[in-house]
Design brief:
Chain lengths: 339, 339
Amino acid sequence: MKLASLRNGRRDGALHVVDRDLTRALPCQAFPTLQAALDDWDEAAIMLQRLADELRDGRREGTLPFRAEDCLAPLPRAYQWADGSAYVNHVALVRQARGAEMPESFWYDPLMYQGGSDRFLGPCDPIPLKDPDWGCDFEAEVAVVTGDVPMGATPAEATEAIRLIMLVNDVSLRNLIPGELAKGFGFFQSKPASAFSPVAVTPDELGAAWAGAKLALPLLSHLNGTLFGRPDAGQDMIFDFGQLIAHATKTRDLAAGSIIGSGTVSNRDAEGGPGRKVSEGGRGYACIAEQRMVETIRNGAPATPFLKPGDRVRIEMLDGAGKSIFGAIDQVVTDSASA
Amino acid sequence: MKLASLRNGRRDGALHVVDRDLTRALPCQAFPTLQAALDDWDEAAIMLQRLADELRDGRREGTLPFRAEDCLAPLPRAYQWADGSAYVNHVALVRQARGAEMPESFWYDPLMYQGGSDRFLGPCDPIPLKDPDWGCDFEAEVAVVTGDVPMGATPAEATEAIRLIMLVNDVSLRNLIPGELAKGFGFFQSKPASAFSPVAVTPDELGAAWAGAKLALPLLSHLNGTLFGRPDAGQDMIFDFGQLIAHATKTRDLAAGSIIGSGTVSNRDAEGGPGRKVSEGGRGYACIAEQRMVETIRNGAPATPFLKPGDRVRIEMLDGAGKSIFGAIDQVVTDSASA
């Protein structure tokens, strides 16, 4: 099934079941918010599935047209947002561009950072940017929402705890990152609020594309209407979601509603290199920084600018029939200094 | 007023108003959880204050005895836990002990990390420890809970948004920290669930001790019944809570219920040095690591061991009359591998 949190003037929105084609929505009275459903998932899943079945069969009154613009993030605020870097190719490129060596351990010990989760952006919310010099970038990723996962869970146990899957725009302020990481405590100011896809879906909605705790479909990013990247999220993912969740549980329990991200999706090309831009026939990139790194490696300097007010980012994933699975993240950068 | 979340079998517990002496509690029916009250604070504060007045005057039926053991953390789970390092003395000592230089910028640009907040420990909950080789330590700190704070708030505006104050045991796994920080993305596995004091209090409860967005009282830590530290939380705090919150809002809004920590409280001695143990007449330390650093600086090696199963940590703050303000964090380390 597909779930969305629609605007209702409250912080958590109203939980709705959405049909497969993303055209109609049905509110869930018994579990008014997605967090409430996750807190009591065994019971909630049965009820939500019943609503989904009735919605599919046209057996329910009270459905309403579904529009992405009415959506908050599926979890408008969450108790945890931990983002991995499972596409180690992306990390290797970052290091290569700045002439630094990547530790060998990155291939077997996942990188993960604790992100802010008190207030996410909805899929069509503007990206507020106070200072274009901060180097605003998008990062297209896949993320999962977990149930309760006990400390020391195995990857197999962790995979069983995956409740929902969604897309993320992990907005990043590139020019704030070097100074912040040099301080040694990880990201904070350089990672403002992330945005999520209109709907979150259960694993069974993905069919064969969900295999081995990875989502094997191209993740499409458009910048100002032009395709910027189409890397396959199932390829070059060195740590699957079960491994990422297990990493997060090494020293503590994870509570229901924890969101675990894949990190920026990134593919190597057939020769093991960093690939090419879409305009050169390649799969392109799921963030501007990666294209800039490839430009730096090739030409000594980046050419593609970071985001500025007015720029539009669209992130989406289509199924085998060309239909949008999660709806689109579709955001415009706005000058928040003048707001 | 003083607020607590009492165990009721649910994840968020039941919000109660507690009297100043920490003897009686009264449930709040209109705002069943502390997060619900923070979401709608203007209205909630009026109602909670009325309950507090009635509790003080003995005008209410239905009060129950208050016991710290019945408490969850005031916010048993939160949408944000961001911990500063405002006592730069602590950071300078860490660096000195390992022969590293501390950047000058640490004196004017706050260090802050994003912590996990999906499941906190209650004040009397055991500290689960799977492997004593991880180097388990306590860190005694002060923390505040904020209302909504807009992006770019000034320290003065941020100070106005402080709703509640409480104590924290920021449990740390010291031997996991160097490897994790070397990866560049900050703490994750090295910071398991933190514990909080039985009650959170409004600033007006603190009288003159709350001044300049700092809490000017000694923070007492006991290890296995022996006083380990009594540094004054109002001294050597280089960044007050207004500055810490403002730092957190540089690139994003903070939502109501965000918890901002002070970092480990740490005082210099009169000569500007790292002070002495309590047993040597000093103020001691608010974590084991700091005492070990001083031992290393003085004797070339640490002597005090980290926590092992069975060890007991108590963190408390007394008012001028010797009464406990927040109740005590009182935890025993347990072997979670055998659980």
